[in-house]
Automatic annotation (TrEMBL):
<dbReference type="InterPro" id="IPR017911">
    <property type="entry name" value="MacB-like_ATP-bd"/>
</dbReference>
<dbReference type="GO" id="GO:0005524">
    <property type="term" value="F:ATP binding"/>
</dbReference>
<dbReference type="InterPro" id="IPR015854">
    <property type="entry name" value="ABC_transpr_LolD-like"/>
</dbReference>
<feature type="domain" description="ABC transporter">
    <location>
        <begin position="6"/>
        <end position="237"/>
    </location>
</feature>
<protein>
    <submittedName>
        <fullName>ABC transport system ATP-binding protein</fullName>
    </submittedName>
</protein>
<dbReference type="InterPro" id="IPR003593">
    <property type="entry name" value="AAA+_ATPase"/>
</dbReference>
<keyword id="KW-0547">Nucleotide-binding</keyword>
<dbReference type="InterPro" id="IPR017871">
    <property type="entry name" value="ABC_transporter-like_CS"/>
</dbReference>
<dbReference type="InterPro" id="IPR003439">
    <property type="entry name" value="ABC_transporter-like_ATP-bd"/>
</dbReference>
<dbReference type="InterPro" id="IPR027417">
    <property type="entry name" value="P-loop_NTPase"/>
</dbReference>
<keyword id="KW-0067">ATP-binding</keyword>
<keyword id="KW-0813">Transport</keyword>
<dbReference type="Pfam" id="PF00005">
    <property type="entry name" value="ABC_tran"/>
</dbReference>
Length: 238
């Protein structure tokens, strides 16, 4: 584990400023080092997705600072943010967000087109990352021809194909049964072991306990930040 990758200082996000304002993030301070595996846990409405949107450069805070790899991204404009986002972050969502009429390999290739990667390299990267998630036999399958767990593995392959250093997963197992959830968590652990920084957002203690560090958020504030002593000591219980 290495340098500071993510640093947020007094981060606030206020929706609908004024009478009906919602303080979704309320003076959040957090530091994450390169290579960490962190779960961010909180109840529904606690501010997890808002935080993910900030960390993932999908949105900017109302106030406060966000340094990603030493660069202040909290005041960037949309076009600058999208450059940083494309380079640094792989997203995994609860709903997979795959394109129904594209097969696995095409789904993984798609965002690589926007990154300006040539066809041959795209194909190679897509195959590589589908193999990494154990889907070498499903590359020609469309989402409707795969189980939920397999679809989420395609989504993970898509997230890692361009080799971003940070993986941001928002409730990645929220739509999955427990066997598929275990698979997905196993893959996220593998990503962490291969050196990626993994940030896993969840409302589920059993899932959060799989991470090395657990940050608990409540009403837009960090309530606790603990190291999981059992991390890496064998079988997970889900
Ligand atoms: N675009 C928005 N406009 C107004 N309020 C929002 C918006 N997005 C989220 N909120 C509110 O901000 C709070 C945090 O929401 P969210 O970050 O989605 O929480 P979580 O992901 O933990 O369920 C909630 O009270 C929610 O209703
Ligand atoms: Mg959410």
């Amino acid at each position: 584990m290495g340098d500071t990758l993510i640093k947020v200082e007094d981060l606030c996000k206020i929706y609908n400023p004024g009478e009906n304002e919602v303080r979704a993030l309320d003076h959040v301070n957090l530091e994450i080092k390169t290579g960490e595996f962190v779960a961010i846990i909180g109840q529904s409405g606690s501010g997890k997705s808002t935080f993910m949107n900030m960390l993932g450069c999908l949105d900017v805070p109302t106030s406060g600072k966000y340094y990603l790899n030493g660069t202040d991204v909290s005041t960037m404009k949309d076009n600058e943010l999208s450059v940083v986002r494309n380079r640094e972050i792989g997203f995994i969502f609860q709903g997979f967000n795959l394109i129904a009429n594209l097969n696995a390999i095409e789904n993984v290739e798609l965002p690589l087109i926007y990154r300006g990667i040539d066809r041959k390299t795209r194909h190679k990267l897509a195959i590589e990352s589908l193999k990494m998630v154990g889907l070498e036999k499903r590359m020609q399958h469309k989402p409707s021809e795969m189980s939920g767990g397999q679809q989420q593995r395609v989504a993970i392959a898509r997230a890692i194909a361009a080799k971003p250093p940070v993986i941001l997963a928002d409730e990645p197992t929220g739509n999955l049964d427990s066997a598929s959830s275990r698979e997905i968590l196993g893959i996220l652990k593998q990503m962490h072991q291969s050196g990626k920084t993994v940030i896993l957002i969840t409302h589920d203690n059993g899932i959060a306990d799989q991470a090395r560090r657990v940050v608990r958020i409540m009403d837009g504030k960090i309530e606790s930040d603990t190291i999981n002593q059992d991390f890496g000591k064998g079988e997970e219980v889900l």
